[in-house]
Structures are given as C-alpha cells and as structure tokens.
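User: what does the whole thing look like in 3D?
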Amino acid sequence: MNHPLYEIVEEPIEVEKIIKKVERREAGAITTFIGTVREWTSGKRTMYLKYQAYQPMAVKMLQMIGEEMEEKWPNLKAAITHRIGELDISDIAVVICVSSPHRKEAYEANEYAIERMKQIVPIWKKEHWEDGETWIGDQLEKVAYPEGSPDMEDVKK
Amino acid sequence: MIRILLFAGLQEKLGKSSLVYECDTITIKVLKEQLKTAYELFEMDHVMTAVNEEYAMEDDIVKSGDTVAFIPPVSGG
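Assistant: Here's the predicted 3D structure for the full assembly of 234 residues, as structure tokens:
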C-alpha cells in the first residue's frame, strides 16, 4: 500500500507504520520524534487537549517542510503524521521519522522539522484544564510572516 | 464573493468557521481591517493570512472566488 508521507489523521498514530515509510536500503539511521500530550505546563494541569487543523493547507505545509529538508540534507527521506481531535495525556500528537545514510543528518533534519512545524503548519491546540480552557498560540517568538512564505508571484498565480 | 475561513480562537469568538464577504477585489490589509471593525476581532492584528491555502502578504489582493483563511499563531506538535 502506498501511504502518503505527510498526513493529518484523527485516529491514534501507530509509530511503527511511520517508521516503515522511511525505511530504505541506503539508510544507516532512522530518527523518530514522538510528540506526546504533557500533563503539567507551567504549573497548570491539563486534563486533555483538542487539536484543530486547516487540513488541506496543513498537509501542504508538511510537504513543504519535507522539500526544505531534502534541499538542506540531500539523500534523506522523511514522513510526518500529526493527529487532530481530542487527545488524552500521553497520547501521541505527532510523529516525525527521518532516514539518512548517516545519523547526524537524521537527527538534525528531525529537529528542523518540528521547529518548522511550530512556525508554519496551521494546527492549533486547545488546552482543557480543571478550571478552564484556552487556545494556545505563539509558542515561538514569531515574526508576522514566517520564512518560506510564498512570494507575491506565487500567491497571485 | 470571497470565502473566509476561521480557526481556533477566531472561530470560537464568531461562533462559526466560515463567512462570505461580498466584493470583487480587496487587499488583505483592508479585509482584515473591515472584519476587525465589524466583529471586534482585535486578534486580526496578530494573524497570518492564507489565500487559497498559501501564505500571503498584507498587500496582496484577493478577488472574488478566492478562499481566505486567517491563521492565528499556530501551536501544533
């Protein structure tokens, strides 16, 4: 079966399946980042989270991150799956797998992917606490328009 | 007619996920101002904008038939 490398899903993520997507004979390393739902943030206890996505654009942006990675680190293969909907503590929200001939590239590219995701992929989380709830934004000190935004020409095509 | 998509806090504040804005052409900057005033959406100063699923700039012009999405600061991962 041909699974897409970049996906937004509503069901639990099976890590093994994402790893399989980047397996190849020339790889000597696969790094796997698993982002999970944390219970305590700055002294506040989260009961559960809700993720929302602008799904078609989120997939496009994940693909764009993939292209950026391939430019920076040739001969690398990546797969990213992000889950949306309601997630409990310790549930897996995101899995990023990167394979490369040598481990250094796989580590670096994997970290690049999660940092970029937090800049440009239209996904939002809402934290539900014992005594309230709020949409989380601005986890990074962002500028109004992130690098990688298309030029005027691209937008107007 | 321009289709407008809202997410996260914006969506909750307006109580809907999309709007229709009647006009032929408008810059994103002006469109943001209009919505900010009409719905008291002060968050508009801090949102990014996507036109037809691609990030756009304040001076870009959207036209009838386009889909404009306002993207509050993202928090995936």
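In plain terms: Chain B has a mean pLDDT of 96. The domain at 2-71 of chain B is CATH 3.10.20.30 (Ubiquitin-like (UB roll)).
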